[in-house]
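User: When convenient, might I ask for sequence and structure tokens for a protein?

AI:
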Amino acid sequence: MREGRPRAPRPPAASLGMPRGASLLRWTSCVFIILTGCASSSLDDTRSQGETNKSYKSASNNLTGSSQPLPRLPPTPENCSDHSQLGPFDCPENLPCHALSKECLKCDFNCTCVYGQEVSVTCRPKRSCEGKQEITVQMVCRYCYQTAHWEHTCHGNDQCHAVHSPRETFTSNCTVNSDVLCLGNRVFRKKLYCNWTSGYKWSTALLLSITLGGFGADRFYLGHWQEGIGKLFSFGGLGVWTIIDVILIAIRYLGPADHSLYI
């Protein structure tokens, strides 16, 4: 046999792989520990921030005495003073204070009263009067524009068409009666239906249409001159036009030429 150098014994395979596997395991453990510490610290920060916000909210709620939102205040009532009131020169003198009209009194109204409720109001005269200068007046809580139609007077309008479909309306200036006490302006604007008349009677127009309708008397009476002339020279359209006009006047479809109402 050939003699040679003695060979060194080869280490086992398991011993070669131990340092590398242990190093990999050690690095993996370190990364896991670092990640776990970061996650726990972020979770602690989130919890502390939530507790801080909760304590801040509770402190802010304690400032108001309740955790519920504050209730909304009721809206400011509409101005109930009279800006269209009459001046002192319009009120008579040397009358008993209780006999003065309501527009001659300056009253302390309660604008927050309930609509329709009867309340007592303290009033003082605008001018000198006889008797007690401070009087108490009973009134119904309502604004002047809410009064009934018989408690105020409105100016008419003869420029609109009362006989029209649909019925026309106009805006009128209305004034509350002197014996009515109410809130707000005593002179107000109100929309009314056109209902004026110029004096034509429905009974007269119907009687003329039946008796003298063939000669156009009904048309002349109502102010339809052109139709009246045509009806006169055609002898009432040979009777057909006369019958039609009788029906139209009877149902109040045919009215005065100025678009007013019958009396």
